[in-house]
């Protein structure tokens, strides 16, 4: 099939430590050879420091989302997009309310050796917290 549709119910969910960050992968090594994609839920004020070894596009679905880097901060709201370039340490953080994002990565974010090493902080969960 040339197209596929995914919802948060299709995602394989993990939690980033105790930070209040939930990541739901829908495109990953098991079903894609070229790119990664999914959803994430950040509880109010939740933050996640990470060094991506891939390029990432983040679309804010609800709430306010900020990406801090050595170059400063970029904040986006619903319907806005943030591009994060590979190899730059960043902190992803939510504003004062629960924030939902969708993301796409190239290559698949959890397929790189650097990401696999950082992924020790990820714990499988049944899904994000209920709203």
From TrEMBL:
InterPro entries: EutQ, RmlC-like_jellyroll, RmlC_Cupin_sf. SUPFAM superfamilies: RmlC-like cupins. Coiled coil: none annotated. It holds the Pfam family EutQ. This is Cupin 2 conserved barrel domain-containing protein. It comes from Thermobifida alba (Thermomonospora alba).
